[in-house]
Prior knowledge:
The structure is a homodimer.
Chain A: H1 5-12, H2 16-23, H3 31-44, H4 50-56, E1 61-68, H5 73-88, E2 94-101, H6 106-114, E3 123-126, H7 132-143, E4 147-151, E5 162-164, H8 168-182, E6 188-194, H9 200-216, E7 220-222, E8 226-227, H10 232-245, E9 249-254, H11 260-269, E10 276-280, H12 284-292, E11 297-300, H13 303-319, H14 325-328, E12 333-335
Parallel strand pairs in A: 1-2, 1-3, 3-4, 4-5, 6-7, 6-8, 6-9, 9-10, 10-11
Antiparallel strand pairs in A: 11-12
Helix pairs in contact in A: 1-2, 1-3, 5-13, 6-7, 8-9, 10-11
Chain A binds a DNA duplex through α2 and α4.
Amino acid sequence: MRPTTRDLARAAGVSLATVDRVLNGRPNVSEKAMRQVSEAIERIGFVRNLAAANLARSTTYRLRFILPQAGDQYLAEIMEEIRVVNDALKSEMVSAEIVQMAIEDPYLVASYLAAIDPRRVEGVAIMAPESPQVRDALKRLVERGVHVVNFLSGSQQAPGIEFVGIDNYAAGATAARLVGRFCRKERGSIMVIAETMRAQDSSQRRLGFDDVINRDFPHLSVLPSLETHSDMERTRRIIARTLEYNRDVVGLYVLSSEARAPISCAAEFISLNDIIVIAHERTPFSVEGLKSGAIDAVIAQNPGHAVRSAVRLLRARIDGRSVLKSQDQLRIEILLKDNL
Amino acid sequence: MRPTTRDLARAAGVSLATVDRVLNGRPNVSEKAMRQVSEAIERIGFVRNLAAANLARSTTYRLRFILPQAGDQYLAEIMEEIRVVNDALKSEMVSAEIVQMAIEDPYLVASYLAAIDPRRVEGVAIMAPESPQVRDALKRLVERGVHVVNFLSGSQQAPGIEFVGIDNYAAGATAARLVGRFCRKERGSIMVIAETMRAQDSSQRRLGFDDVINRDFPHLSVLPSLETHSDMERTRRIIARTLEYNRDVVGLYVLSSEARAPISCAAEFISLNDIIVIAHERTPFSVEGLKSGAIDAVIAQNPGHAVRSAVRLLRARIDGRSVLKSQDQLRIEILLKDNL
DNA sequence: AAAAAATTGAGGTACGTACCTCATTAGCAG
DNA sequence: CTGCTAATGAGGTACGTACCTCAATTTTTT
Lengths: 340, 340
């Protein structure tokens, strides 16, 4: 059988109480006792039984996902995945609540974060653009003992706050490589559309996209980014104008995670089958586009993986464990019509 | 607080013993009691605390991965991932042992399976080609109460035995789509190399590959599959001969998971930068090839995901739980130099 | 109506760890 | 040496569920 704390105490030549003091970092333990226990742990290969430990201290993992209010299909997918995880992990004392708010308002978000009660919430996953207000509020939240991850957006490396998501520079570079290799025309320009370039993810993607096109596909040129601001009328207008002034458009790259509106608009003015179209995220719309040939490739970060990754990370932090970093490295997926 | 079995008993108006009988499917329970308990479960939202349950019945998850002896880098990656999982899940009573054997010998494998003691092993993940002997041995193993998954190979739908791995037909189709779209030449033929076409995964991939090329890229033609049988000399010889008789080769597709030998051989006779090269699985070799440009794309099934998926599946079966099917759907990953 | 069988309840112990109290001992300063 | 504090041990309870026994009750069969 596996060694228990009792076996460990015997092997270390100390009492159960001392083992407990060492294992849980309680005060009043001599150097010597500490050494004896650590040595015995190695020697007999003791591993704490997490289930029993959590049972004893009746740990709960009450997590909260803070998400935007606005959003189309991709946001819906994410929320669905959160609900699935919430159901599936009930028996392991995990609950994952969703809270939606006007995430673009830093003051609102910061005040919400300030009001979180550490006795009622152990972990927070937040999908918010970076801003000084939010950054500070998160820092204070961490200080109050709540674990936090930046979820698919925000800073990739804030101190004490982990990031779950893909490398957006690399995602843009991948999109560029696909455009370049798929494109059969010798010359031409590529239209780029985003919701707003103020979001870090979009600007990172654009950077990666430009770098690869300029370096490896110099015969192609990239047009200035068009910003839709989620406004259909505006979107239609700027696309029409861009196509009018650029007769040599051979590709379309949609930076944002919600591609439905911009691609639908573009389809009104140009035949998507004649140009290379690359979008982000798997949604009912993008899947349909891949199948029909309107979209040539989709760069995706799996929302299910992302959600589970965030939950795993927060759970590990709450347990004071470290995590398998490899598992939580989100992959940049490339979807074609054949590998849906 | 969360309702416990005690609360459930009170809510159902029965004793704790009866609740236990219902929850654990023990005999001697009246229809009525059963109904009362089920109804109360719904009403108060009772969810069994898995940690406590497993503690009480002192469940262990002793898993065994049965792998081939032969194999190059991909097999090494898989074994490394198994070791990582083994370490990481020690505290959750999971152990994952690796056993290697001459997996191509159905009689050997079958006799090994027959000798497995159900009291010492709860689950088995096996990476073996399908054969009547192995199929029967697995069936008997399941009957003896051991849970089994086919791991990255074998039948995709045997009764009572789950499959963890990608859809190989779709993987081949994806490879074909990439070759077709990457290829700038108007006409040409594609060389296909496998270790052996008797393995189901290879033949499935070939099928998918042919279907897409024939349907969507009729200007390309696919040469008959070359079989290396893991023999370097033979590999070199057949590649040389094929290239000699087919001056119009524009692409190379390596079906097997270990691409190092065939691609190295091919490089001796043709400049890989001039043709489209597609391989399977992420290995140090294939990553290097992507970076250098020798390989244009890699179709991969993430070994870490595969291992964890198999472990999750087996654990769930041992607990008598159902699993989130979406999570264990292995993705067909496409790797370019930018999204490694 | 009696006997047999099925159902139910009461009460206990166990799993491995956390955390508490209290008594005792060791070590050290004055 | 005394007094004080730090260190240690002994022993307990708790967490929520599983699983056991045995007696009491109800239902079914004869």
